[in-house]
Design a protein that fits this description.
The structure is a single chain. The protein is α+β, with helices and mostly antiparallel strands. The protein folds into 2 domains: 132 residues, 3-Layer(aba) Sandwich (Peroxisomal Thiolase, Chain A, domain 1); 177 residues, Peroxisomal Thiolase, Chain A, domain 1 (3-Layer(aba) Sandwich), CATH 3.40.47. The protein is 34% helix and 20% strand. The protein has 13 helices and 14 strands. Helix 1 runs parallel beside helix 2 and helix 3 crosses helix 13. It starts with 12 loop residues before the first strand and ends with a strand.
Length: 397
């Protein structure tokens, strides 16, 4: 899908720090936390939320009262006029929100829309489904997060099995996946240089607790680290497979947000009116059962085709990499240097809160392109159900 009038005002976006599973955000309501972070963003950027016409909420893990999700967070953010539909497609939820916002801008439904994505993997709900047709009316039960990580009801496999399937089919070795993991950690170290200067370009600190327990979370908490020595002592998670614990990310908690506008209104919200950021293409895909990571490639190819560009035109490429096999495959299939994918950070390192994962990746991509003086960039990621999504953005100025 191509877009003609969908813009991201420079700097009109945020991400909270991401906290590792059972970390500092484990007991905070994800919608309320996103409301708190978004209000702080509006305050820091001196933006009046009531001028934003519409809102999309990306949410994939149920929280108390999430039945009211979109209208609730709209109210928390000072946008009580916005209807706020809820969107969910696992790890590419942010991409789907951006696509819908872009469609609204292109067709005149809105001239300024806020996209917010938030999730809390920690302390996910344990659900009980009544069954009056079973003996004793014994119901079914589900752990929302872990049962779904571990079992695709259609493909009949776990997510980590999809990583092994991709590695086997495409001849990707353990050494290649370890190399990708080590490189990702090096790149994130660049984001922490100069007192985390890169992260401070878009990250909004979160204040939690009260009194003596009050503290500020200003950078990601509980990041993934990798070393040659660590990999030497690891065995594959699944016997006969290739993916070890160190080749996969961790569940996390956090939120991200982004204002999308028409070209005419972009300057109203931009931190630097000389910089323009345009959404020009979105692609989605679904591949055969049990090959989730492979879906990133056709999604990327479709986004590039809709944007009317080639891989060689890209100055930046980001991925969602819950497994490092993803990056090896993308590099091989698209012909992009593996060492140059995911500069400054990625979900392998800072974690995977699902709903906001892709949105933060796009924000980081924009900032990378600005540092490089502009150009074309793409994000591509996989999602549950062997699906994938990708976006292409253009930065000038």
């Amino acid at each position: 899908m191509a877009f003609k009038n969908a813009y991201i005002p420079y700097g009109a976006y945020w991400s909270s720090p991401y906290a590792r599973w059972q970390g500092s955000f484990a007991n905070l309501h994800s919608i309320e936390l996103a409301g708190q972070t978004g209000r702080k963003f509006f305050e820091l950027r001196k933006i009046s939320p009531e001028k934003l016409e519409n809102l999309y909420l990306g949410l994939t893990i149920a929280q108390p009262s999430c039945f009211y999700g979109g209208p609730w967070i709209a109210g928390l953010l000072g946008m009580g006029h916005a209807t706020g539909p809820v969107v969910g497609q696992a790890c590419i939820t942010g991409i789907m929100c951006m696509r819908m916002a872009g469609e609204d801008l292109d067709n005149g439904f809105s001239t300024a829309t806020l996209v917010v994505a938030t999730d809390r993997c920690s302390n996910g709900p344990h659900l009980y489904y009544p069954r009056q047709d079973k003996p004793g009316a014994t119901g079914d039960h589900e752990d929302w997060v872990w049962d779904n990580f571990g079992h695709d009801p259609w493909a009949k496999n776990s997510m980590i099995q999809t990583a092994d399937n991709v590695a086997k089919e495409h001849g990707i070795t353990r050494a290649e996946m370890e190399e990708a993991a080590l490189r990702r950690c090096e790149q994130y170290a660049d984001a922490l240089k100069d007192d985390a200067a890169f992260l401070r370009r878009f990250m909004v600190p979160v204040e939690i607790g009260k009194g003596k327990r009050a503290k500020t979370i200003a950078v990601d908490e509980g990041i993934t680290t990798a070393s040659v020595e660590m990999f030497a002592g690891q065995k594959p998670v699944i016997e006969g497979g290739a993916t070890t614990p160190g080749m996969q990310t961790h569940p996390a908690d956090g939120n991200s947000g982004m204002i999308m506008t028409t070209k005419e209104r972009a300057a109203e919200y931009s931190q630097d009116k000389k910089i323009t950021v345009q959404l020009i293409g979105v692609g989605t895909s679904r591949v055969k059962k049990g090959f989730m990571g492979a879906a990133m490639v056709p999604a990327a190819e479709r986004a590039l085709a809709d944007a009317g560009i080639k891989v060689k035109d890209l100055k930046g490429l980001k991925t969602h990499n819950p497994f490092t096999v993803n990056d090896v495959l993308v590099a091989k299939k698209l012909g992009y240097p593996q060492k140059d994918i995911n500069n400054y950070g990625c979900s392998y390192v800072w974690g995977h809160p699902q709903g906001p994962t892709a949105l933060r990746s796009v924000i980081e991509l924009v900032e990378e392109l600005v540092i490089k003086g502009g150009g074309l960039g793409m994000f591509t990621g996989c999602a549950a159900g062997d699906t994938g999504g990708a976006v292409v953005v253009k930065v000038t100025g």
